[in-house]
Design brief:
With about 450 residues, the protein is mainly α. The protein contains 18 helices and no strands.
Length: about 450
C-alpha cells in the first residue's frame, strides 16, 4: 500500500529542495547511460588492441549494450507501473554501477561483453522509467521544464562523450572509462533512495512470458537492423527478420485484452500519442543519419583530422543543450505540436543547407549549419516528451516512458543502418544521400508534429 504522502507527491510533484535532489539523481543516471554509448565507440580501437581481438569482434562491445537496452526497456517500464518507478530506477542505477565496475575489471572480450550486457540491462531500467519519474517529481505546471532539463542532460552527455573519452584515453587506460561510473553511480543511488517519490501502483501483474517475448522480438529486430548495416547476407537477415516477426505476432496475441499491455498498443490508439512517437522515431533517424555520415565527409572528403571533426560536430550538440530548457519552458505555455513542427522544419532546412555546402567550406560555413540543425533538434525534444507523456493517462506513464526511450533508440538504429546502405550505393556520395534522407525524415516529422494540432486526444 502506498503511503498517502507518497501518493500526493506522485500527483503534485515534490517540494523544490527534494525536487532538486531527485532530479540530480536522475540526471546522473541518464547521463551515465547516454555517455556509455559514445565513449565505447571512441574507445573501441584501444580496447581491441589491449584485449588482443579483432575490430569486427570488438563491435559487440557496442552492439550488446544497445541490444540489451532496447530488448528490456518496455518490460522495465511495465514493471515500474506495478512495483513503482522508484524501485526500478534504484535497481537500474545499482545494476549499472556494478556492471560498470565489472567492465573496468574485465580481462577478455567475452568478460567485457557480458559486463556490457548487464550494463545495458541496468541502463534500460534507468531509461525505461526515467520520463515517468520526471512526471512524479515535477508538478503538472512544470512538466515542460522537467523534460527540458532531461533533454539538456542527454544533449550534454552526447556532446561531451567523445571528447571526454579521448581525454581519458590520453592520460590513462580504457578501463577508467567505465570505472569513473562507479562513484557517480553510488552517489546517484544514495540520492535516489533519499528523494525519489513513490507512485500509485497498478493492480495488474507482470506476465513473464510476455516479457520474454518482448525481449526476443526487440532483440531480434535490433540484431537484424545491425546486421543489415554491416551488409550481412540475406541468408542470415531473412531468418532473423522472420523470427522477429513471429515473436512480435506471439507477443501481440499473448497480451491481447490486457488492461496495460507491455507493448503499449492501447496507447498507440490515441492519435496524439501515435503521432508523437512517429515524430520521435523520424527525428532520431535524422540525427543518426547526420552523426554517422558527416564524420566520413569531414575526414575523407575534406581531409580533417578526427579532433577537428569532433569540433565540427560540436555546434549541433551545444545548441541542443542551449535550446532544450528554453523549449521545455515554452511547452508549458504553447502547443508541443506547433513547437515541435517549427523546430523540425528548421532541422530539415538545416540538413538541406548542409547539402548545399561549397566544395571547400570554411569552419564558419560548416559551423552555422550545424548550429542551425542543433537549434531545430533542441526545439523539438522537450515539447515532444511532454506531448507523449501528456497523451497517456497517469496509470500508463510507465508504458509511455518506455516508448520514449524505445523510439529514440530505434530511430538512431534505423539512421545508422541507412547510412551503411547509402555508402553501398556510392562511396563518394554516401554522405549526400544520407543528408537527403535526413532532410526527408525531418520533414515527415515536422508534418507529423503539426498534425497534432488537428487531432483530439482520446479519453
Amino acid at each position: 500500500m502506498t503511503h498517502p504522502d507518497s501518493a500526493l507527491a506522485a500527483r503534485d510533484g515534490l517540494p523544490p529542495e527534494a525536487r532538486r535532489i531527485a532530479m540530480l539523481s536522475l540526471a546522473i543516471g541518464v547521463g551515465m547511460a547516454s555517455l556509455d554509448t559514445a565513449i565505447a565507440n571512441t574507445a573501441l580501437p584501444a580496447i581491441a588492441e589491449q584485449l588482443h581481438t579483432t575490430p569486427a569482434a570488438s563491435v559487440w562491445i557496442v552492439n550488446i549494450y544497445q541490444l540489451a537496452m532496447v530488448a528490456t526497456l518496455l518490460p522495465f517500464a511495465a514493471l515500474g507501473e506495478v512495483i513503482g518507478y522508484r524501485r526500478v530506477s534504484i535497481f537500474g542505477l545499482a545494476l549499472f554501477t556494478a556492471a560498470s565496475l565489472a567492465c573496468a575489471l574485465a580481462w577478455s572480450l567475452p568478460s567485457l561483453v557480458v559486463a556490457r550486457l548487464f550494463q545495458g540491462v541496468g541502463g534500460a531500467a534507468i531509461m525505461g522509467v526515467n520520463t515517468a519519474m520526471l512526471r512524479t517529481i515535477f508538478p503538472a505546471r512544470l512538466h515542460g521544464q522537467g523534460f527540458g532539463l532531461n533533454s539538456l542532460v542527454v544533449a550534454v552527455a552526447f556532446a561531451v562523450g567523445p571528447t571526454a573519452a579521448s581525454l581519458i584515453l590520453a592520460v590513462t587506460t580504457w578501463e577508467w572509462l567505465f570505472a569513473i561510473n562507479v562513484p557517480l553511480g553510488v552517489a546517484a543511488v544514495v540520492l535516489a533512495r533519499r528523494a525519489l517519490p513513490h507512485n500509485p501502483r497498478a493492480s495488474h501483474k507482470i506476465d513473464a512470458t510476455t516479457a520474454l517475448l518482448n525481449v526476443f522480438a526487440f532483440g531480434l529486430l535490433i540484431l537484424t537492423i545491425g546486421d543489415a548495416a554491416h551488409l550481412e547476407s540475406w541468408q542470415r537477415l531473412l531468418p532473423e527478420l522472420i523470427a522477429a516477426a513471429v515473436c512480435f505476432a506471439l507477443l501481440l496475441r499473448r497480451q491481447a485484452g490486457h488492461a496495460a499491455p507491455m507493448l503499449p498498443v492501447d496507447l498507440f490508439k490515441r492519435p496524439l500519442f501515435a503521432l508523437s512517437s512517429l515524430t520521435a522515431i523520424c527525428t532520431f533517424a535524422t540525427q543518426g543519419l547526420a552523426f554517422v555520415s558527416l564524420p566520413f565527409y569531414f575526414e575523407h572528403t575534406l581531409g580533417r583530422s578526427p579532433v577537428e571533426t569532433g569540433f565540427l560536430m560540436t555546434p549541433w550538440a551545444v545548441l541542443v543543450a542551449v535550446m532544450a530548457p528554453i523549449a521545455g519552458k515554452l511547452s508549458d505555455r504553447y502547443s508541443p505540436g506547433a513547437l515541435g513542427g517549427i523546430g523540425l522544419a528548421l532541422l530539415s532546412s538545416g540538413m538541406v543547407s548542409l547539402l548545399l555546402l561549397p566544395d571547400q567550406p570554411s569552419v564558419f560555413d560548416i559551423g552555422w549549419r550545424m548550429a542551425w540543425c542543433g537549434i531545430g533538434f533542441g526545439f523539438f525534444q522537450a515539447p515532444n516528451l511532454k506531448a507523449i507523456m501528456g497523451s497517456a493517462p497517469p496509470s500508463r506513464a510507465g508504458g509511455a516512458s518506455g516508448v520514449v526511450a524505445t523510439s529514440r533508440l530505434i530511430g538512431q538504429a534505423v539512421g545508422a543502418a541507412l547510412v551503411a546502405y547509402c555508402f553501398t550505393l556510392s562511396a563518394t556520395r554516401g554522405t549526400t544521400y544520407a543528408l537527403m534522407l535526413g532532410a526527408a525524415f525531418a520533414a515527415v516529422a515536422s508534418v507529423a508534429s503539426f498534425s497534432r494540432l488537428v487531432v483530439r486526444q482520446q479519453d
